[in-house]
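Quick note —
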Amino acid sequence: TRCPVKNFYKNKIILITGVTGFKGAWLAQILHLWGARVIGISLKPHTKPNLFSILKLDRSVKNYFADIRDFKKIKTIFAREKPEIVIHLAAQALVRKSYDEPLLTHGTNILGTANILECARGAKSVKSAVIITTDKVYSPNNQGACFYSEEDPLGVSDPYGSSKAAADIVAQSYIKNGVNAAIARAGNVIGGGDWGEDRLIPDLVRSIYENGAPCQIR
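Predicted structure written out below.
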């Protein structure tokens, strides 16, 4: 059967930040199978095992191990690879870690996002970009709602949520000033190959299995 989305991405040069992460690795694999040329910018995998290695993405993705806070290095990669589409997933994405390392969290999520958008703005090759934030950006005053609307106010108190809300606002400012980009506020994603910290399903499994043996659930 025909797949218009698949056909669209064929032979496109797509840059994915955070390609060694759970979402980034799956996205890179799908786009590679659809015939795209995938460029990655990421930190080295921080878990063993990890999906990036299992999928052998080092063979199918031209990946640069770089910190998105390093503007000069990121700009050099954009100039060298000339991506047509940018999908920004890289982030410090752990809520609990954001309390322990708020400067790292804000630096990565705010400055890192600004760096990616500035590189996209300055690269003639880039036709569009997608900036992934989170549904945690919304004001806690709306926490009792059954669902969120894109018009709901942003603003939270924890370092992770505030950093992503600020990144969202940065992205909005670039969009309003001519950068062809969109924002996707993602919720929790559950799937195979996620060995990160503070993950719902892996932590649930670990709580059931202790020392390699099943625990009795009462």
